[in-house]
Amino acid sequence: MAREPINAAGGIVLRGGPRPRIAVVRRSKDDHWVLPRGKLKRDENPIVGAKREVVEETGHRVKVHEFLGAITYSARGRPKLVQFWRMQAAERPSHDLTEDITEVRWLPLGAAIRRLSFPLEKLFLRSIGRRALKRRRRAGRREPARNSARGRKPRRALARKKSITKRGRR
Which residues constitute the domain of residue 38? Predict the structure, then answer.
């Protein structure tokens, strides 16, 4: 009989300007450096749980963006699934850290990868880190509103253009 998995969620939490930093946290129980994450409550939505855990562990309010991926491993003989989202942190902390965390460091991508204690988390951050940083930079730029991924103008604008052209005002 398969044991029920432990569900957890967290974030690749970014803060800062042109050279954003990534949050890594030190756990009090074993002094390991990890990405901010934690177990979900029963029937908790993973996005809600990820945000809750990140706020508790970093002390910063965050905006949750796209899903970046998941890692899975065995914890006390049970499979554990941890889902991660890209998150943007407020510049200043607004909450105290949970007692499970002794320290938060905001590091550039390479330093964050080196600081992590577990090879699986290092591999995960190495594989998605650059993509998370690129998406963050793109999200910061203002682009003209589009109706679809193919770049069509909104229908209202097209309708106005057609009606003006039909009347010969063009």
Answer: 6-140
